[in-house]
Amino acid sequence: MPKGNPKKPPGSKKSALPPKLLSSWGFVIFGACGVALAIVMPHLLKYLFPHPEPKPRVDNGATQQQQQQSSPKAVCAEDGPPEHEMCLAWHKAGYCRAQRRGVSFPSAQQVQEQCARTCGLCPNTKGRNPPKPREDRCSRDNTTAAVPEGELNRLFERIKAEYPEYEPTFLSTSPYVLHLKNFISAEEAAAFQSTCKESFERSLAGDQLNPVRTSFQCWCNFGDCFANPLVHRVTRRINNLTNTPYDNGEDLQVVRYEPGQFYRVHHDQNTAVWAPQGPRVLTFFMYLNDVPSGGETAFPQIPSPSGKGHLIVQPRLGHAILWPSVFDERPMEADERTNHEAMPVHEGVKFGANMWIHQFSFKTPSERGCELTYVNTVGRQPQTREHEALVAGRVPTYEETVRAASQSKSLDPDTLARLDAKFKRGGRDQV
């Protein structure tokens, strides 16, 4: 048999392409048709045989009624469900406006559904800390003092009577120093330490590094800290205990004292009455761990309950102490009797957390970028032209603030609201 290609039948035409190439093109064309059919077929079937869309899946076993209750419309209703307990912190962190990265952070939609009032999404509500023009960043929105004249001592007596679960004890009553046990859990204390672990810096005194204070500090002014559920829970517990607004408290400051570190005798009141937040009126200090030796809090001008020496408080996990920075009868004036110091740590490391509470909102001007919320201020009037320009016409004068605090204790909430509105319209002298 001869070798080579077999002969073609008579009359057949010679192909212009090799047989192998023709076979390859066939596969390509066949595959393209299959892909096109796969794309078109679902749409064709949906057109020919329409059916209703499935209802959205309800997560976590929630009923349709529960989903409706979490909608903005339901939260806005007068008799609607309460907002989520994290709403204040979420708003402060900016979650009302945009979704933040991270698994633990809620989406903007979740926040808007559960925090409609705080986010300002309800009709006729401005929400928490509504925006203002840049030039009004240091205005005082609420002119009602948190602790008016004659109310400071009653505040301490009320806590003593209403919170037996913390075993409240007066270490002093002139001035008041209140000691609490089991105020913060070990889990909550650990949350403070862990969120601040990478954020400690050398502590400041008088707005600068100072040899009188050698510890480390972490301002809990970032979302991972103040929006941590455990940290926020403690913050709200302090608000409820002292009956002061969330926004009046500064961001918590976590402190760390290593062996040999200390903070010499000082006073916490460092803010002028004419600043938008007004003076610091209360200090709430929590101990976040046991300290083997040293690290006590000492009040050199307050006698010890035993009558021997001055008052010294031992650092114990979960314990807290509360004291005033002003007088009961003069709540805009510093009470120097509450000078205190953090004594040197001899063994181990001491962790603690401060909250300083002001007469007026601190967080509102702070979040607007007011320079007067992160510097010390003194005197009965601004000391510089720059500071005067920030508060002129936006914050009551020293005299107006003192007079309002002396009268507000006898005024009802409606009258106080009316006076606040009158001040914002310019009628500041009629209190």
Automatic annotation (TrEMBL):
GO MF annotation, one: procollagen-proline 4-dioxygenase activity
Segments traversing the membrane: 21-45
Alphabetical list of Pfam families matching this protein: 2OG-FeII_Oxy_3
Stretches of the chain forming a coiled coil according to its record: none
Region (Disordered): 55-78
Gene3D superfamilies: q2cbj1_9rhob like domain
Entry cofactors: L-ascorbate
Claim: Iron is one of the keywords in the record: yes
Keywords per UniProt: Dioxygenase, Iron, Membrane, Metal-binding, Oxidoreductase, Transmembrane, Transmembrane helix
Fe2OG dioxygenase domain segment(s): 248-359
A GO term from the CC aspect: endoplasmic reticulum
Presence of the UniProt keyword Metal-binding in the record: yes
SMART domains hit by this protein: P4Hc
Protein name: Fe2OG dioxygenase domain-containing protein
Source organism: Chrysochromulina tobinii
